[in-house]
Amino acid sequence: MLRGLWALCALLVAVPAAAQVEQSTTARADANAPTIASPDGRISVSVTTDGDGRPLYSVSRGGKQIIAPSALGFLFTDAAKMQRNFRIESKASSSVDTSWEQPWGEWKTIRDRHNELRVRFKESKDLGRVMDVVFRVFDDGVGFRYELPEQPNLKTAHIADEMTEFALTQDGEAWWIPGSEWNRDEYQWNRTPISSVPLAHTPLTVKLKDGTHIAFHEAALVDYSGTWLQRVEGTKFKTVLIPSAGGAKVVRGTPFVTPWRTMILSDDAPGLYMSHIELNLNEPNKLGDVSYFKPSKYVGVWWEMHLGTAGWGSTPKPGAATANVKRYIDFAAKHGFPGVLVEGWNVGWDTEWFANGKGFQFDTPAPWFDAEALAAYAKNKGVQIIGHHETGGSPSHYEDQLERGMAFAAAHGESVVKTGYVTDAGQLERVGPNGEPLREWHDGQFSAQHHLRVLEMAHKYRIAIDAHEPIKDTGLRRTYPNWVSREGARGQEYNAWGEPKNAPEHEANMVFTRMLAGPMDFTPGVLSLTGKGGTPILSTEAKQLALYVVLYSPVQMAADLPENYAKHMAAFQFIKDVPTDWEDTRVLNGEVGDYVTFARKQRGGQDWYLGAVGDEQARSMEVKLDFLAPGKAYEAQIYRDGDDADYRTEKRHAIMIEKRRVTAADAMTLRLAPGGGVAIRFKAVK
Amino acid sequence: MLRGLWALCALLVAVPAAAQVEQSTTARADANAPTIASPDGRISVSVTTDGDGRPLYSVSRGGKQIIAPSALGFLFTDAAKMQRNFRIESKASSSVDTSWEQPWGEWKTIRDRHNELRVRFKESKDLGRVMDVVFRVFDDGVGFRYELPEQPNLKTAHIADEMTEFALTQDGEAWWIPGSEWNRDEYQWNRTPISSVPLAHTPLTVKLKDGTHIAFHEAALVDYSGTWLQRVEGTKFKTVLIPSAGGAKVVRGTPFVTPWRTMILSDDAPGLYMSHIELNLNEPNKLGDVSYFKPSKYVGVWWEMHLGTAGWGSTPKPGAATANVKRYIDFAAKHGFPGVLVEGWNVGWDTEWFANGKGFQFDTPAPWFDAEALAAYAKNKGVQIIGHHETGGSPSHYEDQLERGMAFAAAHGESVVKTGYVTDAGQLERVGPNGEPLREWHDGQFSAQHHLRVLEMAHKYRIAIDAHEPIKDTGLRRTYPNWVSREGARGQEYNAWGEPKNAPEHEANMVFTRMLAGPMDFTPGVLSLTGKGGTPILSTEAKQLALYVVLYSPVQMAADLPENYAKHMAAFQFIKDVPTDWEDTRVLNGEVGDYVTFARKQRGGQDWYLGAVGDEQARSMEVKLDFLAPGKAYEAQIYRDGDDADYRTEKRHAIMIEKRRVTAADAMTLRLAPGGGVAIRFKAVK
């Protein structure tokens, strides 16, 4: 049925049928200014050309223009730009209202309800090139992309840059991290006036003066470069495609489509997170059966490396030493964690780390790691090892070994592999088509291709991928469900050695920016609240628990050391209980960078879980429990900040664990300490 | 002597001699933190590396840090970046105090007094690459460049980007135009907080909160791409090299040097203009005799095209029609203008304008232009035609005809050619090494090469170049003196058809931004104050006169139509009198974007000229005349705004012309109307 609906849509919007479709859709006011509204009529997009034939679009919400007429087009490295001298040749519109299921996720069922407008622009002189721009307008946002048909004067597009503008009509606040070659998106967020943003990565979240929240991002980044958003002047932004080593940032033969340029529009911050346009603008699952992956938690050999007490290589001692790994397997088995991540297990770490990875072997264990014995030991305990493929920034080298590496992982009972792309060389190393060395950006076209090659090979071996230092997330988990999670933000490791450590507001920033793109393997749960050399983490203990609800990922680590958890067993219970797969998700409240409260319902169960995190301020918030099933009783197992808890003092460890009986008719006051949080399991009473 | 001093400097700073030089210079505090101060000791530069081996420099002025430690380095498309893991291998310092003469210019004699520090950085691992960074510290600013020696692991540098940072320690105001592929720098200036600049072209001028003025720019852009300045966050900027069609933005074999990164430092706006570091950081004249060029004024077939009453091609009628050109020759001869610019004289305009120029012929007159007859007619009248080579944005096509075009110009008595690079294709069209089409930026490496090829060919034919829609000016007129002027900013033509027209503050912005780079052929003097369709120009008549003093160019147009000058003969007298070559220049006062007053002394004469322009505010300023020769009497011929003059009304034409006798002991009150100006000739009394 789903397939049938999609086929119907495809038919409705097919370009050759444009004239027919035109007749079947509501007449528009002016053939030169096509418009399309959201199903609820609140958002509308208008398309036109100006006196110089520049294609322009604008966006209104509630009758108020949000995006002033903004240009569309391309620069090429080998041809005149497509930006002026266009006329609108045809238009077509259609509607979709369908639902689909995530195999795992924040919500089980996703509704996709939108109206679509396709506009064909044709150059009125010279080359007579055409480009289609397709707009999909949802009740909570807009996506649009370019579709460049096959045509005589554009056989291969060598795109120097995409010239898509976003001219906001109001100033306001913005939350952003810089577009940068360095650091793989691992920044804390800037909060500035919109009119002070320089070059920003996406998602870029803004709150206009009138209160409208907008998150700019992209969807379905396939065989194309990711984009940054460059403020041009005032509150006008434009796309800046992320570079490639070749002359063009993107090289594609026609026909092809670009990623969707997206903007979620909402009255408030929670509405940003509740939007599904990112997933809806991706294609359905193209892999088929992905039942080999089960959402689950894991522990592993990781935090001790970041603390510096063990190494990825042999110094000061190998974290992946067989005996040490057994210790983690024992801990996982005892506490019900299905996975044990092992980093530093393979050949190469003593020579290749931060040295471009060319010596890493993905099927050859280091001398200290007995792969056969550990695979058997884990299996016997009902646990599996999560593999680790650190490329050291050399994806070409990794691709050479890709099948061997995945085969090795599968042969050792692994169904999840964590990949990594750390390099201090700046860009990723790639061997070019003629054997020449090339350097590619983490978010460039080559990287977009590479990650999909990895996913397809992993799928062949029934393996899911958790990519670190990855390309940005653009919702491709819908199409490639085995891309279960990734990093792509400043994670817990910065609380080991970061200068500075993650600020208390970090996660409240992330929820409304980075997390709009998709899951993140943040690795929460460091209940010791202690980084390298005994330095304090800027969090309370309860907040570490809340992060399991706040930061969605279908693979979720309990990142601390077993010996540390042994000292925090009461709190650890929440980590043991909390699911990693959800039937439903509600954002109960929130302000970007200040605080947020999530309620999520366990998939395949009756329990709800609540997580709230704040910033450096103490905060008290009342939440209604009307998300609970009406008339049903729940035991609220509450893990909250102690009354004197404070991230700035040793009282960061003050945690109160208490139980209350509640129903959907109740409300609850959540008190967050400075740097604090609260985690609650609402256990359905039988 | 000059040559001898330079040779001595070269010897002192030669890298192989670094160890020796070290001994001969003053001992520095710390071998790992070399420092160098300006001759007056006020400015100092410190160089160091951080814990990750990042090369850093910082700049202080008066003991206060102005530029916080800022990174240096490169990204490559084919190799690991050069940005970390460096140590300082050696350093050397030297001093220069010399003077040299401009063949024409704002000042006859230029003093070059600076201290130099050369630091060699070497990678401590992997490739062991080295780079030298050379700092020259003047009393009024700092320049530094990279010098990449020949070395085994860097034979050819494929530069993806230059990673030079400028981390300002204070916020303040900034005046900037955007870095953009479009519009060839033809913008009005933005005035925003420094912390709100996005991607800026250079010169970028800022005024820090403590009053320090800084202009960031570059010098000696040879065989390299120009740079934009991207604000990264807060008040930190970095270089973003302007793209090339090829993969790398710059491709250079080692050894090579980059352009100088420059910052003029001043207590006030006038001090920015008075700096000579832009010229001093360029190499001396390498062309030899350039006596074929004489600074001079010109009239020509130009404004009527912008008004739309004549065409470059045959519609509505050719401006370059023989009879019309004769009219201009007659006018020039009658009023003493040596040059007559003729646009639209050659084959191609009817088909090639805004169509990439591939049909332009630079040695074939259009049917309406009798080249032989007009050359003879002009010569007979003691006038010469200024040639015009509009490439339509196809420099490759132009290069194919370059020698023929210059030979044609020379054969027709032309000693100045105005070139042009207008295109609506976005970038310049270039035929690549294998015949493939490529698109290059106006400020990219190819353009830098192209302009020098044009200059060298022009010099062979004893022709000077006035480049429009050019690469940015970086002081190369010192090395290639026949590059006499250029455009590269929003000129007078915007007052014909611009939407909007140039604002009253435009020129007060330009003086302290664009004009710091070098001369501009702005084409002032539209005394009719009337654009296309009778629309008003936002200027008073007196201001049009003042621009001849304010905006330096050794070729200076009287841009209005002869029939318009006939109605303004009294004011026109100033245009006839004002020189285009100066012995000395003083900036008497000024604030960026608000107002400025220049006094310039005629080269080879006794007269001084004063020009002051303001913004939309009326303004009264007292200036001392102590620039005049002491004890000497002058007749001040004053062209000032009428008492009720106002750019917003028909009173923009109100001008008062009066004479006074003055001496150096006098002061004078300058009253500027809204949108106004004042022009004064101080004629030495015999």
UniProtKB/TrEMBL annotation, chains A, B:
Gene3D superfamilies: 2.70.98.10, Aldolase class I. Residues 581-683 form the Glycosyl-hydrolase 97 C-terminal oligomerisation domain. GO terms for molecular function: carbohydrate binding; hydrolase activity. Keywords: Hydrolase, Signal. Residues 302-489 form the Glycosyl-hydrolase 97 catalytic domain. The keyword Nucleotide-binding does not apply. The keyword Hydrolase applies. Transmembrane segments: none annotated. Residues 36-284 form the Glycosyl-hydrolase 97 N-terminal domain. InterPro entries: Aldolase_TIM, GH-type_carb-bd, GH97_C, GH97_catalytic, GH97_N, Glycosyl_hydrolase_97. Residues 1-19 form the signal peptide. PANTHER family: GLUCAN 1,4-ALPHA-GLUCOSIDASE SUSB, GLUCAN 1,4-ALPHA-GLUCOSIDASE SUSB-RELATED. This is Glycoside hydrolase family 97 protein. It comes from Sphingomonas naasensis. The lineage of its organism: Bacteria, Pseudomonadati, Pseudomonadota, Alphaproteobacteria, Sphingomonadales.
